[in-house]
Amino acid sequence: MDRKNELLIRVYLVFGMFVLFALVIIGRVAKISLVEGQKWRDKGGTSMKWQELEPERGDIYDVNGNLLATSLPYFEIRMDLLSPKQDDFDNAIDSLAICLAKYPGKQTAADWRKELRDTRKLGQQGKKRGTRYHFVAKDIPLEGIEVLESYPLFRLGRHKGGFIKIRDNRRFHPYKSLASRTIGIDRENASNVGLEASYDPILKGDVKKMLMEKIGPGLWVPVADPTEIHAQKGKDLVSTLNVHMQDVVHHGLEKALIDNKARAGCAILMEVKTGAIRAMANLDVGTDSSYVEKLNHAITTRTEPGSTFKLASSLVYLNKGLVDEETRVDLHGGKKRFYDITMYDSRMHGKREVPFSEVFFNSSNVGMAIVAQENFGRKSEWESFYNAFDEIGMIAKTEVDLLGEPDPIVKHPLKNRNEWYGTTVPWMAHGYELMTTPLQMLNLYNAVANDGRLMKPYLIEKILSEGNVDKVFRPRALHESIAEPVNIQKMQDLLRAVVKEGTGRTLQSNIVDIAGKTGTTRVNYSRPDMPKEYNASFAGYFPAENPKYSLIVCVYAPQNGKYYGGAVAGPVFKEIAEHIIGIDEELMKNENHLAAAETIASSYAGYSNDYEEVFAYIGVKPVKKTQSNWVSVSPNEQGILVDKKKIYKKRVPNVNGMGLRDATYVLESLGLTVKSFGAGKVYKQSVAPGTDIEGNDIEIYLN
To answer: What is the DSSP letter of 391?
Structure first.
């Protein structure tokens, strides 16, 4: 065989070997991908996974920049016991054990030394899994991390010292329960609510993914150092809420619920011209009889509104030209039968024909129903009745920027023909056989206060990105006008008349003029076999002449003997309005409000030097009748009177009117144990003044 043929044979042989090798590889690949593919995919899925690494969540602020919600970092500490060199480990382990015994301190230095040495040795021998991710501590705050990072060995970092920190951001509300349901909750494996849910994509920011490896049962470690994965912080929200106004609304509502032993309640304060919500409180009775924020009743709870809905019916009558203030309406003495059901006013007053204005401000169910039945009671007029409510915005949502708002339930004569009865028109006229949320009801009152312009309520003013304004939300009108100006003016006059001479006349204030409507709803009227249950409400606005704020207060199921809206919800409305006047600088520029506001001081008491500083700051010279350390402050014909506040050593003092600091100091100095509820000034104490002190515990309630 010549040399050339020999060379060709060798080439063919090598080539054949390569072809054979390639065929083997192709066959193996085919077997793995086609025959055994699912098996290996399952194995891969059990040992490696991608996990979302969320960036720091954005903050939420009130309109004045006060922090309402923020994320605080907490850390879990683990240690890669195989990363440090042997010399570094041996030189530092004693000092590290002593440091760990001090903080986080779950065991002694000797125990730490033994645990870390033994676990490292087992890991080096391949006898123990998880050695590269050994647990050290959890729930370490940011300041604790700075301490741990300074420890021997840990200060060398992850790769040389084995120090691993895993960050977990937790949501924190600096003002605790204030507006907590409105601000919302951000939590894993649960439905989020409030602004946290509605603006979650903005607050959350861009989510990064991190590859995780399984090293033991339920134990996953990042393949890469998580500190090297930079996720940009989410954007911040500036809300319309005013934390000071929120405090007033929250504690005013809480006081009413406590006094009336109510099941729940809500209150909403809104700016008339813009629709910006300045405060929103929602309280339910808890297991210990205290009140907590559980559900956002203001946004999501639909009820039959009762007499507050008479504003809507009256607007319909005026828009259709059916009545004016002087139109005579027969009240039939306070009782009238419609088909097979008798309707009653709140009392049998015996009145017959009265002007429509009196029907409204005295809240006659019969009068309202008669006007509706005479004009819309025929089947041909039913749809017109429905459409008239649509024209004033009562059929649609408010479009508030919170998730969960339901549509109002207002029956349509065709779409809901099976639920439309002969009594539907007269009952709808005074707020039954339909359902609205408190915000939907308030928005109508806000529109009347705003000269007929129906605004979209909103809770977010700005979105910030790294401190810079990313987006601004402007006020937006849902309807430019829900009625002719002359009809809006008539309704404004009628709402003022409710407080001046009608069902809300006990709510007159010498601090602020109020316009509004009482509401009392029998909840279970379809069940005569059950004890009667009521909801009480008051909706309106203030100041009446030039409104700046609209407000609704709803008290669900009061149990203390009172249930009328004017007696249960109205006083809360008045108290909140008077306090808001004292907070709003623009309204306080009005001299009438300033002069009247001096009467607020009538129930104040406290440390004399504090009041002297306040009076000096605002330029008021009080009439002082005492040099006592503890004083009461009240107005008289000469101005502000400062008199002695008597504190007896052996009897429980009267601390009403004091702030928390002063009341607590006085009571504890006398040997009493104090438990406080609320914020502001004391309005109630559990042990009556003058009671002998015998080591009593005492509860004080503030508003």
So the answer is: H
Rounded Cα gap, residues 532 and 550, in angstroms:
30
| Dihedral of the alpha carbons of 573, 574, 576, 579, in degrees to the nearest 10 | 170
Q: Does the predicted model carry a pTM greater than 0.85? A: no
Half-sphere exposure at residue 572, Cβ-oriented, CA atoms within 13 angstroms: 33
What distance in Å separates the CA atoms of residue 694 and residue 650, rounded to the nearest whole number? Answer: 9
The one-letter code for the residue type at 526 is: S
For 70, residues 6+ apart whose C-beta sits below 8 A from its C-beta are: 59, 60, 171, 172, 174
Place of tokens 């039939």: 332
Which alpha helices (DSSP H) does 619-703 contain, by range? 660-669
Could you state, in chain order, the average pLDDT of each consecutive group of 10 residues for the chain (703 residues)?
69 79 79 65 62 78 94 91 94 94 91 94 87 91 91 92 88 88 74 86 77 63 57 88 95 95 97 98 91 94 96 97 95 92 90 95 96 95 96 96 95 93 95 97 98 98 93 96 96 97 93 95 80 94 96 96 93 95 78 43 64 66 69 64 68 81 80 78 76 76 72
Distance from C-alpha of 392 to C-alpha of 310, rounded to nearest angstrom: 13
Amino acid (1-letter code) at residue 386: Y
User: Would you state the structure tokens that stand for residue 426, as one six-digit string?
Assistant: 């007269």
Let me know: does 211 contact 222? Beta carbons within 8 Å. Answer: yes
Please list, residue by residue across 133-163, b when 16 or more beta carbons sit within 10 angstroms of its beta carbon and e when fewer do: bbebbeebeeebbeebeebbbbebebeebbb
Residue 657: strand, helix, or coil: coil
**369 with 430: CB under 8 angstroms?**
yes
